[in-house]
């Protein structure tokens, strides 16, 4: 977490009645005594307008993301109980719920970080190693955006598109994930775009291509650079 | 409803027609890899068309006689036989709908099991349709966010509650008493 990202935390806390902790954990996800908590945003809900409306940001963060956090904690407790009782069937039954809600928490946490208002660097192109890797794989940033938007448009149902880094080869690529499946294992998440309808519907309705086009104005490539290794 | 019908459903129809066209071309040129690679686009858009067609028909204005479960007397007997009473059925259906992860549909389905006909509640993901052998979709509920977001936002439990005021039980009864082909009849007429 850079000082830039933390700078406005006092201001942010004033925006919401929140008990979010001050400490940032792995990938920005925050924990209190083993419990997942909703992370603060480093910008105001309305700060990504006109690309994403303040109303969408507020609902998306305060309601959708919060539900994933609450549900993840709830099912984590249940799976811990099932483990304590050595109830394997219950553990297996709970696993998809852990994946879904845990994935929802991780994905949104990464998403908020990889967005920024234009006044805080949103839309500024990447530099350094990430820029080089993008050029190697796609030729140019514009070519990447074009392919990324095609991948987003091709998602059938709810899901995400990610710029990922292959931990085996170091190369970057675009991958789509269904529902709240998280980028784990062989691939490292660099930049994610939420393609669930709740991410854009109030503002763009069925015109999702416009959302995919406009969101690049508020992509925080600095955050993406920090994830790239 | 307007966006859902004139934009979303229309997009499925448009893309389905495009998928059918390119499939026909691939069949004509005996391009098997192309035929295989196009199957998912066909399935998704055809499913979107089928599901929404069934959905519009199984809705009715809340004030209409069709929106009362008494419009489906034989189906109700079977529902009570299966779930105990109508409320238990509704509770089971609502719970199933709220358990869907991501986009999808919840369906009441009549299934032929040997000599016997059974009712069951199933979910299908994204636009997968209920078209299996011996399966008749009786009523479907769209659980994509576009189906409720403008009105209910993230409060999908309220949508799942209120949709029961506008279910067309008359259509459900007809589908219950009919065969699979009967449920899809309007689909053929619409092509
Ligand atoms: Fe989301
Ligand atoms: Fe729909």
Automatic annotation (TrEMBL), chain A:
Manganese/iron superoxide dismutase C-terminal domain boundaries: 127-227
Main enzyme class: oxidoreductase
Domain Manganese/iron superoxide dismutase N-terminal: from-to ranges: 37-116
Tagged with keyword Manganese: yes
Co-factor requirement: Mn(2+)
Catalytic reaction list: 2 superoxide + 2 H(+) = H2O2 + O2
Taxonomic superkingdom: Eukaryota
Pfam families, A to Z: Sod_Fe_C, Sod_Fe_N
UniProt keyword list: Antioxidant, Manganese, Metal-binding, Oxidoreductase
Family from the record: Belongs to the iron/manganese superoxide dismutase family.
Cited PANTHER family: SUPEROXIDE DISMUTASE 2, SUPEROXIDE DISMUTASE [MN], MITOCHONDRIAL
Protein task: Destroys radicals which are normally produced within the cells and which are toxic to biological systems.
Record protein name field: Superoxide dismutase
From TrEMBL, chain B:
Organism superkingdom: Eukaryota
GO MF, one annotated term: superoxide dismutase activity
Enzyme class: oxidoreductase
Cellular compartments per GO CC: mitochondrial matrix
Keywords noted in UniProt: Manganese, Metal-binding, Mitochondrion, Oxidoreductase, Transit peptide
Main localization category: mitochondrion
Binding site for Mn(2+): 4, 52, 142, 146
Family from the record: Belongs to the iron/manganese superoxide dismutase family.
Quaternary structure and interacting proteins, as annotated: Homotetramer.
Function: Destroys superoxide anion radicals which are normally produced within the cells and which are toxic to biological systems.
UniProt name for this protein: Superoxide dismutase
Annotated organism of origin: Mytilinidion resinicola
């Amino acid at each position: 977490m850079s000082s830039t990202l933390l700078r406005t935390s006092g201001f942010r806390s004033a925006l919401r009645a929140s008990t979010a902790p001050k400490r940032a954990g792995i990938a920005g996800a925050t924990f209190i005594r083993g419990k997942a908590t909703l992370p603060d945003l480093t910008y105001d809900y309305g700060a990504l307008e006109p690309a994403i409306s303040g109303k969408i940001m507020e609902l998306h963060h305060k309601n959708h993301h919060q539900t994933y956090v609450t549900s993840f904690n709830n099912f984590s407790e249940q799976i811990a109980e099932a483990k304590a009782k050595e109830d394997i069937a219950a553990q297996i039954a709970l696993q998809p719920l852990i994946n879904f809600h845990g994935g929802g928490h991780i994905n949104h946490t990464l998403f908020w970080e990889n967005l920024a208002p234009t006044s805080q660097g949103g839309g500024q192109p990447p530099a350094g190693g990430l820029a080089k890797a993008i050029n190697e794989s796609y030729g140019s940033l514009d070519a990447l955006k074009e392919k990324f938007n095609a991948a987003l448009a091709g998602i059938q149902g709810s899901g995400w598109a990610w710029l990922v880094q292959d931990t085996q080869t170091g190369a970057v690529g675009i991958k789509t994930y269904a529902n709240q499946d998280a980028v784990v294992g062989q691939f490292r998440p660099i930049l994610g775009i939420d393609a669930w309808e709740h991410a854009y519907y109030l503002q763009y309705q069925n015109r999702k291509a416009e959302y995919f086009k406009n969101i690049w104005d508020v992509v925080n490539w600095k955050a993406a650079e920090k994830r790239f290794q | 409803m307007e966006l859902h019908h004139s934009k979303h459903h229309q997009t499925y129809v448009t893309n389905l027609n495009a998928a059918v066209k390119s499939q026909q071309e691939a069949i004509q040129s005996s391009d098997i890899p192309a035929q295989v690679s196009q199957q998912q686009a066909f399935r998704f858009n055809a499913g979107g068309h089928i599901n929404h067609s069934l959905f519009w028909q199984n809705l009715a204005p809340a004030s209409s006689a069709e929106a009362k479960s008494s419009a489906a007397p034989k189906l109700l007997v079977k529902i009570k036989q299966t779930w105990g009473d109508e409320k238990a059925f509704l509770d089971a259906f609502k719970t199933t709908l709220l358990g869907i992860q991501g986009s999808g549909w919840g369906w009441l389905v009549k299934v032929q099991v040997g000599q016997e006909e059974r009712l069951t509640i199933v979910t299908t993901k994204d636009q997968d349709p209920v078209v299996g052998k011996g399966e008749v979709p009786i009523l479907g509920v769209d659980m994509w966010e576009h189906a409720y977001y403008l009105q209910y936002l993230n409060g999908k439990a309220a949508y799942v509650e209120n949709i029961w005021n506008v279910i067309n039980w008359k259509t459900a009864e007809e589908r219950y008493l009919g065969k699979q082909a009967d449920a899809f009849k309007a689909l053929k007429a619409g092509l």
